[in-house]
Write a structure and sequence with these properties.
CATH class of the largest domain: Mainly Beta
Strand order of the largest sheet: 9-19-18-17-14-15
Number of domains: 2
Number of helices: 0
Number of strands: 19
C-alpha cells in the first residue's frame, strides 16, 4: 500500500502575554492517501524533528500517537517539541505504521516566530476618540409617482324632492262593442287507435295442434316456440310436445312455479315445483306419450333481470295411441300469458 502524507499547514498554538513564556506546541494538519484514494480509519503516527532535511541529527524525542483517526484523508493533531526552537530552521519527519513519509517537511516560520520578541508586551492602549461626523451627502433624485389610490366611497343620496302639483283628468267614455258573426264549428277529428289492454288481461299466445313447428311468439322479453312430433317404431307410436322459450337482448331470467302431469286423464296427478335461477339462452318444457294420452299443466312466473314479470299457463298434450286416426292431431300445446306487471 502506498501512503502519501501532505502537510496542509503548520499553526502555532495561542500565545500568552510574554514571548519567553509562549507554549512550544503547534498544530499540524495533513492529508493521507492509500492506493491513490483518501484514507479512512485509524493509523499509528510517529513524528520526529531534525536539524537538516536528510541528515540523522534528530532533535528532541519522538512523538508517538497510536490509532489516530483519519477521515476522508484528513487529520489534525497538536505537536510539542519543548526547548528545540532557538531561531534555527527545523525539519519534521512523519511516519505511518513505521513507514517514513519523505521528504521531510520544513518547520520554519510560525514556531520560530515565538522568539521574535525580546521584551514584555505592553498593555493594549485606550480606544481613540470618535472622529467628527462627516458632512451630509447630497439628496437623491426624486422617485417616480406612486399608483393612483382607490376610489373613495359613494356619497350619501340626496333628499327626495317634493311632489309636483296637478289635476287628474276625467275618465273617458267606454268604446262601442265591435260587430261580427261567430265562425262555424270545425269538423270532428279522427277516432284514436285502440289503447293497450289493462293489467291482468289474458293473451292467448298460440294453439298448436298439428305435427311440426308452430308459430313463434314473442312477449315480455321471451320468444316461445312450440313443436309437436309423432314417431312410430313397430307397433308403438310416440307423440311429444315441446315448448321452448328463448331469452332476448342478453337478459338473465328466473322461473318460479309448479306443473302437474297426468296420464290418460284418469291417472294420478303428480305435482312438481319449477325453480330455475339466472337462466339465459333457450330452455324447454316437454312431454312424451307412448301408446297413451298424457297431459302437463304449467303455472309459471317469468322474471327478467330488470324486474319485468309475466305469468303463463300452458297445457301440453301428447297422444301416442295407435288407434288415433291419421287426420287427428297426436300432440297439442295451448298457452295463455297473463302480464303481471
Amino acid at each position: 500500500m502506498k501512503r502519501t502524507l501532505l502537510a496542509a499547514s503548520l499553526l502555532l498554538a495561542v500565545s500568552t502575554a510574554y514571548a519567553d513564556t509562549q507554549p512550544t506546541a503547534f498544530t499540524y494538519q495533513g492529508n493521507l492517501t492509500a492506493n491513490g484514494q483518501p484514507a479512512n480509519g485509524t493509523f499509528d503516527l510517529t513524528f520526529k524533528l531534525f536539524g537538516t532535511a536528510t541528515g540523522s541529527d534528530q532533535i528532541g524525542s519522538d512523538i508517538n500517537i497510536a490509532a489516530f483517526p483519519v477521515v476522508n484523508g484528513h487529520f489534525t493533531t497538536d505537536l510539542d517539541f519543548p526547548g528545540v526552537f532557538s531561531g534555527q530552521e527545523r525539519w519534521l519527519e512523519a511516519s505511518v505504521g513505521g513507514q517514513p513519509l519523505l521528504p521531510r517537511q520544513p518547520v520554519n516560520s510560525v514556531p520560530v516566530a515565538q522568539y521574535a520578541l525580546n521584551g514584555v508586551v505592553g498593555p493594549t492602549g485606550p480606544t481613540g476618540a470618535t472622529g467628527p461626523t462627516g458632512a451630509t451627502g447630497a439628496s437623491g433624485a426624486t422617485g417616480s409617482m406612486g399608483p393612483t389610490g382607490a376610489t373613495g366611497p359613494t356619497g350619501m343620496t340626496g333628499a327626495t324632492g317634493s311632489t309636483g302639483i296637478g289635476i287628474v283628468g276625467a275618465t273617458g267614455p267606454t268604446g262601442a262593442t265591435g260587430a261580427g258573426v261567430a265562425g262555424s264549428t270545425g269538423p270532428t277529428g279522427p277516432t284514436g287507435g285502440t289503447g293497450p289492454s289493462g293489467p291482468g288481461a289474458r293473451q292467448i299466445v298460440f294453439t298448436a295442434n298439428v305435427t311440426g313447428n308452430g308459430p313463434a311468439y314473442t312477449v315480455g322479453g321471451y320468444r316461445y316456440t312450440p313443436t309437436c312430433t309423432v314417431t312410430k317404431s313397430g307397433s308403438t307410436t310416440t307423440a311429444s310436445t315441446v315448448l321452448q322459450f328463448t331469452t332476448l337482448n342478453g337478459q338473465t331470467h328466473s322461473i318460479y312455479g309448479t306443473h302437474e302431469d297426468q296420464a290418460n286423464d284418469a291417472g294420478t296427478i303428480s305435482l312438481s315445483t319449477d325453480n330455475f335461477h339466472a337462466l339465459t339462452g333457450t330452455h324447454s318444457y316437454s312431454w312424451i306419450g307412448a301408446g297413451l294420452l298424457t297431459r302437463s299443466y304449467y303455472f309459471l312466473t317469468f322474471v327478467d333481470n330488470q324486474g319485468g314479470v309475466q305469468q303463463i299457463t300452458m297445457r301440453l298434450s301428447a297422444n301416442g295411441n295407435t288407434t288415433v286416426p291419421a287426420n287427428e292431431s297426436r300432440c297439442m300445446l295451448e298457452a295463455v300469458i297473463i302480464p303481471a306487471t
